[in-house]
Amino acid sequence: MVNASTPAGSESSRPAPSTPQQRLDTLPSMQQRTGSNARGGHDSGGLPKGEGSASDASQLPARKALVQDLNFFYGSFQALKNINLPVYDKRITALIGPSGCGKSTLLRCFNRMHDLYRDSRYEGRILLSPEGVNLIGPEMDPIAARLRVGMVFQKPNPFPKSIFENVAYGPRLRGMSKKSDLEAEVEKALRGAALWEETKDRLQSNAMKLSGGQQQRVCIARALATTPEVVLFDEPTSALDPIATQRIEELMRELCERMTIVVVTHNMHQASRVSHFTAFMYLGELVEFNPTSKVFQNPDKKLTEDYITGRFG
Predict the structure, then answer these.
(1) pLDDT above 80 for 40
(2) Distance between terminal CA atoms of the chain?
(3) Of 9, 90, 101, 190, which is least surrounded by CB within 10 A?
(4) Which residues contact 197 (CB under 8 A, 6 or more apart)?
């Protein structure tokens, strides 16, 4: 970046930046990139720059969540830097970027997973509609946040229990104990995860004995059983074969008809296939957020284009 002592006009004599880091240094500030105002909102009806003008804001879905001026620290290391991002209701938002860019860190802020580790610290807000509760505020119970915002991890992680007990975990946590109610909720969640027909005759079998793709769908069913408003997917198909990957992607498209989904993926083809909106992150910053078709066909930022075309990352 230009040093404060640099004489006026000397920047124009510099050679054009050639590396991703140099190009990032020449990007506008976060407020310029996203249209943030001093209070952490956005111009153009809350749309990040490049998504649209205030005149077409009414054509967008309602917001389910809004990230405002979010900073996150692991001890003294700042992993996220002034993130401002809308998450639209009943749509899939993909978070993309090279390893270490902060996309999984951002994802885990939504359901307070960082609270499980010492020396983590949030600044800013993540507001969840309709009441506008701050998910990372001290008044928000992390368990309550995780019931409203479910999560599916990169590697299938079913509990070493039966399929039934895996899925019944959430309803039990909510206080449900009647057997018939639990059975109904388990069936509903397994149907929602497109796994009921494959497991209905072996619900008492150990979930660890299922295939990798089936284990991941058990984890999805376990998340659905808490009736979440938002489901987070952290590279959910990276450990799966192509057939299982296709099933998970189809399931995500079905689920977004009734809930909001945020997915982290390194697979550019997957992001372009399943998501409605895409956020590109680099070195802890949000570089660009736009409808997925625009990000992949006509991105606003040169850095975004370089990443999705494989010039780095």
Answers:
(1) no
(2) 22
(3) 9
(4) none
